[in-house]
Amino acid sequence: MIHIDFHDETNSVDEAFVDLVERVIQFAGEKENIAGENELSVTFVDNKEIQELNRNYRQKDYPTDVISFAMQELGEGEVEVQNEDLPVLLGDIVVSVDKAKEQAEDYKHSLEREFAFLALHGFLHLLGYDHMNEEDEKNMFARQEDILNEFGLQRS
């Protein structure tokens, strides 16, 4: 079971989108065999806010669509500490509502699919998926498509 803490800093995200994101992440968690109690947050922001995060954490000064902050990645010299009585904190996913709207229009698919895609993309990053090289990118994007298709959100 994954507990998801939602924050809408734009005050513009419809409850139906929040519910969809919740269901997609839970579905992906099952597909990825996530066991035990897990926790993550999803925050909806505007382009200005995500540009700030992108600049501060990734040294890229432009708005992006989704950023993830994984809590389970061990840095150099860090030791994994796991208390079985506590939920595993997977991390935070930040989605730009502005970018989601732009991209839904650009790709000519529904805003629902774009929100689901971005949340799933962020979630897979929290699980350790990456796209730093071509092979990893192929794996990650294939996994996203498989999960979205199985969930019933095919590309239109």
From TrEMBL:
GO terms for biological process: rRNA processing. It is found in: Cytoplasm. Zn(2+) binds at H121, H125, H131. Its cofactor is Zn(2+). InterPro entries: MetalPrtase_cat_dom_sf_prd (IPR023091), YbeY (IPR002036), YbeY_CS (IPR020549). SUPFAM superfamilies: Metalloproteases ('zincins'), catalytic domain. Its main location: cytoplasm. PROSITE patterns: UPF0054 (PS01306). One of its GO terms (molecular function) is zinc ion binding. One of its GO terms (cellular component) is cytoplasm. Belongs to the endoribonuclease YbeY family. This is Endoribonuclease YbeY. It comes from Halobacillus andaensis. The gene is ybeY.
